Amino acid sequence: AVLKRDPLFWFRVAKSIPELKSRVRAGFGNSLSDQMNGLRNCVDNMDLSMVNAGLHVWRGSARGKTAVSIASGWSLTRETVKKLREVSDHAIIIATDSSMKFLLGHDLEPHFVTSLERESAVGDCFRGAKIPERTNLFAPVVSERKSLEAFEGKRILFSTHGGYQEILGHRRLGLLSAGHSAGNINLALATALGCGRVIMVGHDLALHPDRFTTHFEEIGDERGAVKAKADWDTRESLAEVGSQDGTSQVWTTNFYWMIRGEIEQWISMHPEVEFVNMSAKGARIEGAHSGEWIEVLNSLKNTPLVLFQKNAAKPFVPRECLQRTEASLAALTECLQEVHQLLDRAGGDFLTSALELREKWIRRPSISFQLGVLSVLTPAVTMYERALVEEEVVPSGDPNRKTLILREHFTLWKAYLPQIMHELNRAAATLKTLA
After folding, report:
1. Exposed e or buried b for every residue in 289-308, given b needs 16+ CB within 10 A?
2. Whole-angstrom Cα distance, residue 376 to residue 39?
3. What phi and psi, each to the nearest 5 degrees, are found at residue 200?
4. Percent of the chain with pLDDT over 70
5. Which terminal residue of the chain, N or C, has fewer Cβ atoms less than 10 Å from its own Cβ?
6. Can you give the pTM of this predicted structure?
7. H/E element holding 197?
8. What is the pLDDT of residues 308-318, one digit of tens each?
9. Secondary structure element (H or E) that encloses residue 113, with its range
10. Which is nearest to 348 in space by CA: 406, 401, 418?
């Protein structure tokens, strides 16, 4: 009955559906350029991947332990770090990349540092930092190579999806996909390690009630700078949600709304794990309960010390994996050559060509091959669908608009496929050197 009387709620739902559909379809990249960066990075990192043991050797290695997940929200303060430093040897400390230098600068050494983005800015989080012996980087194989190399310590690589990552041999690292934030990866890693309790620090997912900032003050960029609510009103629409302690309403952004939903879904998938949210004035996260610092610290002090050391990178190149990757790569290259030829012949009739190709893919026996093809085609299809949805929601008034969208899509693909082919040829050359 309440929802029926709340038109703003249904407006947000209607507004979110097309974007949600796009995000689901575009899991391989938020845009064509983003996906090309991911493909390029996966090729760049093939040699690193083949000598990395990946996530598998770590699964279950902290069974029943407590993890402290440190994100970069505004509730992360010097006082918080001081409290955690007292119990840093009694829990698995997992921190996001943007919080690492702050923690190290205040003598708190994480066991793991997570990253997610495939951009060069990630490397800035690591450059110049002296990495402790116990600290491991946990990063996706789509990361930019320079960012990985900027972390001068042990690295654990993982795969974020099948698709072309499987074609290139990266799926063997272990699959982990928990959403659109490094903070989400913290939680996913904690559950993969087998931790029975996760203490969430800095997962605010809302604006500071007074400073209207999103990140901790010492992060070093505009995300930690004091703002006014009016500054946000000119940038994006905000929504009010309940605070974690249930005493007030807090402002959150559309992006944080999505991240919160992803975290809540992850928590619901792991009922065996206790999640404790220490951000009392952050957005309420369903499935996590509020924590009191005195109780949490005392409980940790009474747990045994964590003796937690593993070799994150075993130098090996599995020959079967190389052979399988070589065969898959050759099949994908052949199929994309067919795509290119069909596009050349199709003129403006891209949809007919796509249907013809789809029939060919269905007849292929390999599911991984089909996923590989779809993963390099999906972002362009998503862009096309987004444009059509926008035309439906906000009509341009141009009766030829849909035809123009299709033509733009077709032209884009003509330019895009040669780049993919170049990367696949580069991957084949890398395989020969590894063999």
Report:
1. eebeeeebbebbeeeeebeb
2. 9
3. -100, 120
4. 73
5. N
6. 0.82
7. strand 197-201
8. 555 444 545 56
9. strand 112-114
10. 406
